[in-house]
């Protein structure tokens, strides 16, 4: 096992990998509660039951998709990255496709399935890997730093340290509120342990925050530990219904746009996450991502698996950087993540005590670590600084990793071309320039 995952080469051990896997799992476990509520349109009143997905079935589908995807990533690609149904993509699935377009959720699952199958084809041909390796090192650093700012912003929101404000868009929240104070406590404790160079500080910080939350009655003490696994049959295989019984519904421009959107956002969210995690873990070689094809194939297979079980697009999670910060360096931590998602099927009462306030400090700290990539960017060269800056600033401001990448990648060929550095532009970057322009015109 140690030899396969190259423990000695990467300077890691079972303890670090297990703590890293646990940390990533806790940081992304919220999806088990959020995804069923999102896909069932629970917050929207007075909807026909036919438009709502079964919450219990979606919970099981979410856990299984995350488990299978993380195991694929660990065993095939050997990267310390957890996978699960993606936030943003599930909102697009539920609120744009089902609620906005009026498309049955079964047909929407077919769109997810198609996008995953296309991904597999692209991965097997090596095109996805070629695209990632064609991205200049400076933009890769920018992507990593941008994701750092994005997840820090997400963590601050989860803790209600930053809240919405109609006049200024955002403002400082109520720091005297109990849940917010709990998150602040977690942040201070984690920072102190990080400064003291305590390994696993992020994980231990979340444990201490959870215990304090239960002591002061901000986090519920679970009434039971084990519960039965809900029935997945309401969603299992539903992705094939339109394909078998109503193929005409798939021959529309609207359905094509749905598939392209799933495809586009998953591709670039995954690409950004892979680069960011690999950079932070020190796994990049000559500015290229080793085994990128395997990582992308694992992500593609996870999307197909999730669609069959009955959930929206499965993708790589930026929260994996929390596990890397806690010590994870290999795919063994991803195996731990996958096994924990399987166990969560039986221990859901314990899982739901983990609140956003508990995971918020981890996201904020990881953001601090990731923005260190800013030091590698050649800010004194304006043709590099402009696209890099737009990648970084656009991610938190547009609340989208993919949009940040798109804006920066549009500017890169322009600034490089007019600065006389045409020969340094990879042909694939011109292709991405055109694709992103079309994306903003016809999809975004």
Automatic annotation (TrEMBL):
GO terms for cellular component: plasma membrane. One of its GO terms (molecular function) is purine nucleobase transmembrane transporter activity. It is found in: Cell membrane. The chain crosses the membrane at residues 18-37, 57-76, 83-103, 109-127, 139-156, 176-195, 202-221, 255-278, 335-354, 360-377, 389-413, 425-443. Pfam families: Xan_ur_permease (PF00860). InterPro entries: Azg-like (IPR045018), Azg-like_bact_archaea (IPR026033), NCS2 (IPR006043). Keywords: Cell membrane, Membrane, Transmembrane, Transmembrane helix, Transport. Coiled coil: none annotated. It is a multi-pass membrane protein. It comes from the Bacteria. The keyword Transmembrane applies. Belongs to the nucleobase:cation symporter-2 (NCS2) (TC 2.A.40) family. Azg-like subfamily. PANTHER family: GUANINE_HYPOXANTHINE PERMEASE PBUG, XANTHINE/URACIL PERMEASE C887.17-RELATED. This is Guanine/hypoxanthine permease PbuG.
